[in-house]
Amino acid sequence: MSIEKDLLDRSGSVCELCGASDGLEAIEVAPKDEKIVVCSTCKEQIEDESKMDSNHFRCLNDSMWSETPAVQVVAYRLLKNLSIDEGWAQDLVEMMYLEPETLEWAEAGLSTGEVVKDSNGVTLNSGDSVTIIKDLEVKGAGFTAKRGTVVKGISLGDDPTHIEGKVNGVRIFLKTCFLKKS
Question: Which residues pair with 162 in a beta bridge?
Fold first, then answer.
């Protein structure tokens, strides 16, 4: 994708988030039809949250004050996603000021799903493996899921207090308060 000249001029030919000058691309900031310039590292982490490196995004401390609303929106969204696990990111979110229209735009792009956590408060994601920490009688299946059983490739649903996984060859729902991430 070629970067339009006006975007490069606005950004000073650097990533508008971290300031890197290599591998620049323009990305769209949905739901509006506006773009910002980002480096390949930022782009990869924005597109795949599992690759997100919180240390890389400490640069948001500077870019969150950009005069460009689209940059503010991306910085806000990244900080909100990081603030689940990083206290410094939550502090930055609380310091940020966005105009009401810009805040509405930023919130529109955030994932609405609730965070699913295990018994120790560790965030669970689809595909993770968990260990059962207490013997659990499985109603309707006629067996007990034993403590120490590893459940691989879990699925998340609408309820943040439950996950779905396969135990003894049977797909069941398990309460997250009886699980720990493996």
Answer: 175
CA 27 → CA 37, 91, 151, distances in Å?
6, 26, 38
CA 25, chain centre distance (Å): 21
In which residue ranges of the chain is pLDDT below 70? Answer: 1-3, 84-85, 111-113
Full-prediction pTM beyond 0.90? no
Task: Give the C-alpha distances (Å, rounded to integers) separating 92 from 42, 68, 95.
Answer: 18, 18, 5
Residue 147 carries which side chain, given as an amino acid letter? R
Helices (H), 18-166: 40-47, 60-63, 69-82, 87-95, 100-108
Do 27 and 41 form a contact (C-beta atoms < 8 A)? no
| Contact (Cβ atoms closer than 8 angstroms) between residue 64 and residue 75 | yes
Average pLDDT over the chain, rounded to an integer: 89
